[in-house]
């Protein structure tokens, strides 16, 4: 039986680049976000995760679903898939890495070698839409 990891992610674009994060001890970049806690909606979980990871507040009324991506989960057994629902949203505050995030970077398709499989799917999608280089 295939195992799925349900993840929510934030797509933030700037100057034809997308914001990605790298957690401590990890070697690949991911879209910021994470897993929902019991009873949370997509909106509640994503707002909480982004506050925890990047110290900013997503504006609830601005959240818009972009796309859902599915890929092999990085660092997990073969066949463990991540299903990532990606949203765009405006935010308040100044982006900064939290205790669990070692680095935040603005990436383009040239950076696919350092991204998770799901991250690469997002990069390809955004490139095809003309939103990133």
TrEMBL record:
- The residue ranges of the Nudix hydrolase domain are 2-133
Q: What CDD domains does the record tag this protein with?
A: NUDIX_Hydrolase (cd04690)
Q: Which cofactor does it need?
A: Mg(2+)
Q: Name one GO molecular function term.
A: hydrolase activity
Tell me which UniProt keywords the record has, alphabetically. Answer: Hydrolase
Q: Which Gene3D superfamilies match?
A: Nucleoside Triphosphate Pyrophosphohydrolase
Q: What's the domain of life for this entry?
A: Bacteria
What is the protein name given in its UniProt record?
Answer: NUDIX hydrolase
- According to its UniProt entry, this protein's organism is Gallibacterium salpingitidis
